[in-house]
Amino acid sequence: GENVEQHPSTLSVQEGDSAVIKCTYSDSASNYFPWYKQELGKGPQLIIDIRSNVGEKKDQRIAVTLNKTAKHFSLHITETQPEDSAVYFCAARGDSWGKLQFGAGTQVVVTP
Amino acid sequence: GAGVSQSPRYKVTKRGQDVALRCDPISGHVSLYWYRQALGQGPEFLTYFNYEAQQDKSGLPNDRFSAERPEGSISTLTIQRTEQRDSAMYRCASSPRSSNTGELFFGEGSRLTVL
Fold first, then answer.
1. What is the pLDDT of residues B64-101, one digit of tens each?
2. For residues A38 and A87, what is the distance between their CA atoms, to the nearest angstrom?
3. A6-17 confidence digits (pLDDT tens)
């Protein structure tokens, strides 16, 4: 089955700086890679996703890159703001289309 | 409300008791998913449904866990003879169609504590 590793586990950045979170996956057949943001006491919420036929996708201050050869993908947040503070999860879909394998999460803290 | 609704939000039970967790998906959503999330970890897949059909139950830890969605809407996750290791946040999600990709809309979860 699919295995997803996520780094770092915690990330502290100054407001206005960039944040980068990296994930690796094991199943070369995986074809869908979403990123979820989870605020305290709430369920995860999709912020961006990328399919395996695309190398990069951007939505305002967030972007995701995918390297299929190396089997890794990354989330980039630019011009961070205090409201970006949350736990971020990467995920990959492997052999069962309805089943997402999540990483362990990255706690991002943006300090003013 | 418009979101995925789960009940109860909090459940404390004694070891050996059975528990039933309910999920009411967003109206019209075809697919429904159950995940379990331990503190400080990512969601762990349990099972999912398209309409009333259970498509994949490979994530259910053992035969004490079962799920059903008899009319293709509300779903119940049942844990029999609960054990302390079952303590976790149980999250339900739904998505609007049986598609290859797409957003999962998560509920706020049911926190289960087994004493």
1. 999 999 999 999 999 999 999 999 999 999 998 755 55
2. 5
3. 999 999 999 999
Mutation choice for A interface testing from B26, B69, B100 by most A CBs within 10 A: B100
AA letter at B71 = E
Is B67 touching A (CB cutoff 8 A)?
no
Q: CB-CB: which of B40, B43, B48 is closest to A98?
A: B48
Kindly list the residues from chain A whose CB atom is less than 8 angstroms away from the CB atom of residue B29. Answer: none
Q: Running DSSP on this structure, what letter comes out for residue B41?
A: S
Give me the percent of chain A exceeding a pLDDT of 90.
85
> Looking at residue A54, what is its pLDDT?
84
Smallest Cβ–Cβ distance between B101 and the set A51, A104, A105 belongs to A51
Res B27: pLDDT: 93
What is the rounded CA–CA span in Å between residue B74 and residue B52?
9
Is the distance from CB of A105 to CB of A89 less than 8 angstroms?
A: yes
